[in-house]
From TrEMBL:
This is Metallo-beta-lactamase domain-containing protein. Residues 27-106 form the Metallo-beta-lactamase domain. It comes from Penicillium frequentans. It comes from the Eukaryota. It holds the Pfam family Lactamase_B_2.
Amino acid sequence: METKATLEYFGATTFRLRASGLTIFHDTWLDRPSLMPKYLNINDVTDADYILISHAHFDHLPGADRIAKQTGAIIIANCEAINRLRDAGVPEEQLVPVAGGERVPLFTKAVRAAAKAGEVALRGGPPGAPQEPHHTLATAELHIWPSLHCLIPGDHSTLPDIFDSGAEYIGGNTPFDSTLDITRGMEYGIFRMKELIGESNMDDKTASFTKWIEDKKTNVMSACDGGN
């Protein structure tokens, strides 16, 4: 009897899907700044088959390296995120870079282990490439959609505290405003908060967030979007 699929939400950007014999994380922002609520202890995650990362920003990518090392999960992400994870020590055989437009077969850990041992039908590939199962052994498939981080019209002084997804936002953007401005805003803004604001001017929440985002060794991230 097939087990009913479940989808869990852990706040902000992170979901866990259990379906077709697989456990799949979508983004991995579980270990957050100290004054933010946490809904799942990242150290308690011992089971994951795949990790899907939408992009490499601070509220999406952090934690992917830790879960992958704890569980052996395969990470599917854009090249910016993959490069950051590679630098963080995630084994190459667990990294799948995508750019958008791909269809990726998903396999259970048992099938992946059998392929590694040469006990099941294999996908063709160049000499020396990791042995992968034949696509007919997949229990699910993933369709990758290319995308860019959205940019809300207007500047930071006009952004509302709460966005209504059913509302139309109109601002004074130029034809050249784009996701590039988000990258610049993170690199020269969010990543420099202590310098720009000054520790003495921060409230507890801002100080907590600043301390967290400065720890890029623990919290793997990038100002660059990439997008998928």
